[in-house]
Design brief:
Number of helices: 2
Order of helices and strands: HHEEEEEEEE
Strand content: 25-35%
Strand order of the largest sheet: 1-4
Number of strands: 8
Length: 178
């Protein structure tokens, strides 16, 4: 019962304020039409002939962009997107870890910059790290030829890391420019 009474009170208030808003709206429309009658016809034509701001076009700059587009061929796979890797006695074709199979890298850079000499514009570098043999033995037990006392060989495994010089962008500021 309390809920019904509360609902009826809220409905009454909404109807009252809705009616008040309609009255105010009618008064404002009357004021606008009175003011519009006072404006001379020439000024009305100028006012209503102008395009709204959202329909006007912003003039485009005629200046050339201050960037240049670069296409760098992957030095690891020579643009193939894959490299041959020896797995035991077999050669296996695997996705290039430097370009992630793209064979190239395309990017825009500011005209004041130059391609990073450390990574050649790829933004990554291949780093070899030593992996211990699986058959036991630790890296400290490796002899100079890479063999371990248990007969396994240490391997140089390639991994790609972000270039520390360009921070992965592929380009650096040209010396002498800001």
């Amino acid at each position: 019962m309390k809920t019904l009474i509360a609902f009826l009170i809220l409905a009454g208030l909404a109807a009252y304020y809705g009616n008040e808003l309609r009255k105010e709206n009618a008064q404002l429309k009357a004021q606008v039409s009175e003011l519009a009658e006072k404006i001379p016809e020439e000024e009305k034509a100028q006012l209503f002939a102008a395009k709204p701001l959202w329909e006007t076009k912003v003039p485009q700059s005629t200046a050339k962009p201050m960037t240049k587009h670069n296409r760098i061929l992957c030095p690891q796979c020579k643009g193939e997107g894959a490299v041959m890797v020896r797995r035991g006695t077999n050669d296996v074709k695997m996705m290039c870890g430097l370009c992630m199979g793209a064979g190239k890298r395309e990017f825009d850079m500011p005209s004041r910059d130059e391609v990073c000499p450390d990574c050649g514009g790829m933004g990554k570098r291949i780093v070899l790290h030593t992996v211990a043999p699986r058959s036991g033995g630790s890296l400290s037990q490796q002899s100079l030829d890479g063999s371990s006392p248990s007969g396994g060989f240490a391997k140089q495994a390639p991994t790609s890391t972000s270039c520390p010089r360009c921070l992965g962008k592929g380009h650096i500021n040209r010396p002498g420019t800001q």
